[in-house]
Design a protein that fits this description.
Length: about 260
């Protein structure tokens, strides 16, 4: 199965020791954003969330916490991340402890299906998680249940005609057995079935291709990078970039409102 790295905590401890400046805001961007498009993609979602002061934000499948910390840093809003992988939640907490947003961001281990926040959140994001979820309508319905009527949801998602021919391992699946990639139309329909109305549903594949060309023009950035935290990380990232650049995968950004 994917997401079973055993050395994440040790690697993060070592990187924080070797690079003391990593604790400063934004310095982790090449390490802690576990999706294509990095911090720039999170900025696109923040814009569509249109947060007001005091809005509480939920990050579903928060990984190493990069998106949650970035939202708090940019907006000053409180963000709660939830993720089913205990080692990733522990890593997200470690990376937050020395950051300037430690009082705004928290992480919990858990399944969104069993999360019943009271009060509900005013906004949510989810980035690069639904590919691991087979019953997408049920999963987005669990997210809807955690949100107040009228709350916003922003998503950043991998879509495609299917997964035959994808070069495994990919960032979200080592061998394809826990991957459920569907077309943009099918994903959009599942989000609608879960009780969300669409504000925006945009194919961002061209934007992503240009981001990849710009970001990796001279190879990987210097310093700590995401593949250092993942089993077979470099192969996964290269396979993914190739499937987005020359293959059938697409990236879609969505902005939705939870129906009242
Ligand atoms: C590719 S990472 C994306 C992490 C983060 N959203 C980001 O963009 O940096 C996918 C994350 O989804 C989490 N995940 C997978 N299935 C999940 C589920 N059913 N509920 C919550 N989190 C899940 C994994 O533990 C992993 O942290």
């Amino acid at each position: 199965m994917t997401y079973e790295e055993t050395g994440v905590g040790r690697t993060i401890d070592r990187l924080l020791r070797e690079h003391p400046g990593l604790d400063s805001d934004g310095a982790l961007d090449d390490l802690d954003q576990f999706h294509i498009g990095g911090a720039d993609a999170v900025d696109l979602l923040i814009e569509s969330l249109a947060l007001a002061a005091g809005d509480a934000v939920l990050d579903v499948g928060s990984g190493f916490g990069g998106p949650a910390r970035q939202i708090a840093r940019r907006t000053g809003n409180h963000v709660t991340g939830i993720d089913i992988t205990p080692a990733y939640v522990s890593a997200a907490r470690d990376l937050t402890a020395g950051s300037g947003v430690r009082d705004l961001v928290r992480f919990r281990v858990g399944d969104i299906a069993a999360f019943h926040p009271d009060p509900p959140f005013q906004a949510a994001i989810t980035m690069h998680v639904q590919m691991n979820v087979e019953d997408k309508a049920a999963w987005f319905a669990h997210i809807a249940r955690c949100l107040a009527p009228g709350a916003r949801l922003a998503v950043w998602e991998v879509c495609g005609p299917g997964q035959a021919g994808l070069p495994w391992p990919m960032p979200w699946s080592l061998d394809g057995t826990d991957s459920f990639v569907v077309t943009a139309d099918a994903l959009h329909a599942s989000i609608g079935q879960a009780g969300f109305t669409t504000t925006e549903w945009t194919n961002e594949t061209a934007w992503v291709r240009s981001w990849i060309a710009r970001t990796f023009a001279d190879g990987l950035p210097d310093g700590p990078v995401l593949p250092m935290l993942l089993d077979d990380g470099y192969t996964r990232v290269i396979n993914y970039a190739t499937a987005l650049t020359d293959g059938p995968l697409e990236i879609w950004r969505g902005s939705f409102v939870r129906a009242g």
